[in-house]
Amino acid sequence: SSGKIAGFDISSSYLKHGNSFYLDGAADGTMTPEEHRWFISSSKFQVTHIGDITGSNVFFTGGTIAGWKVDSNRFYKDNSVYINSNTEQIYLGHSDYDSAEIAFSGSGEGKLASGAINWDKNGNLNVTGSSVTLDISNFDLDTPTLDIKSNTSTSNPQIIVSSGSGGEQLV
Fold it and tell me: What is the percent of the chain with per-residue pLDDT over 70, rounded to a whole number?
């Protein structure tokens, strides 16, 4: 019930090769020495008697973790949420970035509302739709050719529209 085969030590409960590999059929997580904690143990990978896994440099290229699917590039829930390491994108509502309702790219661009609100990596924002509502106490739009701002005076509230050259018109 004990000895060696091809450099592996054999006992009544384990198969072992030095400190680099250990397979213990009697492991219960409480045994000593410490190596008996593991059902399977190698230098970078361990499995306890109840199936808990510890490892370094672990690569999953397929399967499911807590309802999330894993493939070679993505961690996702079907037609819901996708995290794509290959394209450095996160997108929601569809299986590809272009069709997704909400999407963010590692380059800094993104979109909301199926692209009705979108921005590029330089921060240029586009908003399209049938209406836009701003409910704010102070408004100031400043562009090189047009300025619009609210006057927050309670006695004489006004909207001031200015041209880039400085001409003002009260509305």
Answer: 82
